[in-house]
Every structure is written in C-alpha cells, then in structure tokens.
Amino acid sequence: MGIGQSDGDAVRAPAVTHAGAGAQSGGRNNLLAIAAVIGAGFCLICGDAFLRSPSSELPLGQLIAGRSVVACACLSLAAWWQGVLTWHRGLNSTAMVVRIVAEIGAALLFIAAILRMPFANAAAILQFIPLVTTVAAAWLFSERVGWQRWCAGAVGLVGVGLVLQPGSSGFTWWSLLAVAAMLCMSLRDLATTRIDRSVPALLIGAVSAAGVAVMGFAMMPLAPWQMPSAQAAGLVTAGGLFVAAGFYCMVHAMRLGEVSAVAPFRYGTVLWALLIGIVVWDEVPNLLAVFGIVIVIAPGLAMLARERRLSQARLARARA
Question: How far apart (Å, rounded) are the C-alpha atoms in residues 190 and 5?
C-alpha cells in the first residue's frame, strides 16, 4: 500500500530503495505493512480524541491548525535528523497533490463530525474504508484480490456493526460528515500507493501536515481565535504528536503492503475507539458489542497468520 504477497493474489512490485526512506527491501512486505497500519490506527484515533475537550473553547480552524503545525514540526525535525529534509521531485506528482487535498478533507470533515456526534459512531463509519480501498485497488490498480481477503473485509464489517449497534440517535445527518471523511481517507490511502517510493515517508507526512495547517489558518476569518488554556494547548500538542506518528505509520503501511492485504486491519481502529470511550468517557460495551469485537479481531488474526506462512514459504524458496 516480493515479500508478503500471496501466490496469485497480487502482481509482484518492482524493488525500489532509498537511503533516507529506511529499509524498504524490494517489493512488498505485508507483515510490516499490517503492523504499521495497526499503529497508525491507534495514533490517528488518539490524535482525534485529544481534540474533543479543547473544542469547547477553541474553534475548529484553530484546533486543526494547531495540531497540524505540531505534526509538521515533528515530522520535519525527524526528516532533518535523517538528512532527507530536501525537496523531492516526487512531491510535484499528481498522486501527492491528491493525497494532500484528501488529507485536508479528511481532517476537516472527521473532526467536525466527532464534535457533533458520538465518537464511537464516527469511528464506525470509518470502518467502511477497508472495503472501499479493496474494491478501488482491484478496479483501479488491477490488484488481484483473493477470496480470503474479501471474506476478511466483509466479516470485519459485520463485527463493526455488532460493536456499535448504530441507532437513529447516533446516525443523524451529521453522520454524512464522517461518511465524506471516510471517502477522503480512502482516496488518501490509494493516492499514497501511487507516490514515488523514493520519496521519504517523513517528507510525505510533513508536507501533508503542512497542507492541513494552511487550511486551518485559512479558516481564521470564519471564527475568531482564542488564547488557549494550558490544558487545551497541551491536548492539541499531544494530538499533533500522535498525528505525526500516525502519518508516518500510514504512509509506510500503504507503500509496503498490498492494499487488499492491509485493508482488513483498518478495522482495529474501532477497537481503539472503544477503549478510549471506556477509559475517557466511561462507555462500557455490552455483551453483543464484545461478540462483535471478537468478530473484528478474528479475520485480522487469520489474515496475519496466512501472510506469515506465505512470507516464510517465499523466504525458504529464495534460500533454496
């Protein structure tokens, strides 16, 4: 989003390496991509959760700008430390422009949604991303998707429905904001797979965060900015740190692995959302929700075991 591709599930990608981008051993590595997408899900959902409390005193544009400035600064500093903070021709590509625009839309729409609807319900809508990206990858990129991956995505979606049990109170017209955010995130992930793999992930994340920050500043005339309290400033800063880590992990996930292999593990985001709801807002799931959690986890673990077996088999053949 080669090591980690299933036999007959996808066409092997060419090997591309870059000293500043880290070790990207030729082609795809679905296992590393899966680990990256799980980490990205945790970091990004935390980055969104941190903004709920300060939203009572700060306008949306200020929240987005503040968080994005912190994220951009962290990613830029890390890129400078690795010696890759230089302009790359790949940043001028159509895929990069699409990714930045989609990132801006996702940030604005999803944060606006979680300020007006239950956090877990908004997170549930995002769980349509795996099916959208899987279908789009098969249609746009001719990525061959095996029946195991289709089943994993479908079963995970059923589990999400059991976990959240959406009702009329949760899915109001504000839910359309989360739906639009979901489409933007799907477009962002697909665009990331098309960016030149020689462009360092840190640089992609920093430029994307800068784009979102610019949009936040552009919203200043819509609502006057306020002097944040120490608590609000701390929460926005923490959100920026988590978003920076999430951007970095998500770029690696989409570039290292096949979209159809990584997509089922996006369902893990709803587990993080539930955990945050329990700890922060005392939202305890009922037995049906617990059953749904098991259903969400099961196909992901099955896919992980399958990818590991295939990876070991290919490694053994390569050594033979």
Answer: 18
Taking the domains of the chain in order of start, what are their residue ranges? 29-314
Of 273, 256, 312, the C-alpha closest to 35 is 256
């893990």: which residue's tokens?
A: 268
What are the residues facing 29 on neighbouring strands? 3
Helices (H), ranges, 146-267: 147-164, 175-194, 201-218, 230-256, 259-262
Global pTM reads 0.70
The full DSSP string for 51-83 is: TTTGGGTS-HHHHHHHHHHHHHHHHHHHHHHTT
SS3 state of residue 18: strand
Task: Give the three-class secondary structure for 14.
Answer: coil
DSSP helix/strand/coil, 127: helix
What is the residue-level pLDDT of the chain in tens, covering all 320 positions? 333 333 333 333 333 334 333 333 445 677 888 888 888 889 988 998 999 889 889 999 999 999 999 999 999 999 999 888 888 888 889 999 999 999 999 999 989 888 887 777 777 777 666 666 666 666 665 666 677 767 776 776 777 676 656 654 545 667 788 888 888 988 888 888 888 888 888 899 899 999 999 999 999 988 889 999 999 999 999 999 999 998 888 877 877 777 667 766 776 777 788 788 778 877 676 677 677 767 766 766 676 667 667 767 777 787 77
What's the Rg (C-alpha) of the chain?
19
The most distant pair of C-alpha atoms in the chain lies apart, rounded to whole Å, by: 67
Whole-angstrom distance, CA of residue 168 vs CA of residue 195 = 40
CB 152 within 8 Å of CB 303: yes
Q: Integer distance in angstroms from the first to the last C-alpha of the chain?
A: 28
For residue 311, CA distances in Å to 7, 34, 160, 316 come to 10, 13, 29, 9
Nearest residue to 35 via CA among 314, 199, 250 = 250
Place of tokens 């099955």: 302
- Which residue bears the tokens 């997509």? 263
Q: Which amino acid is at 249?
A: C
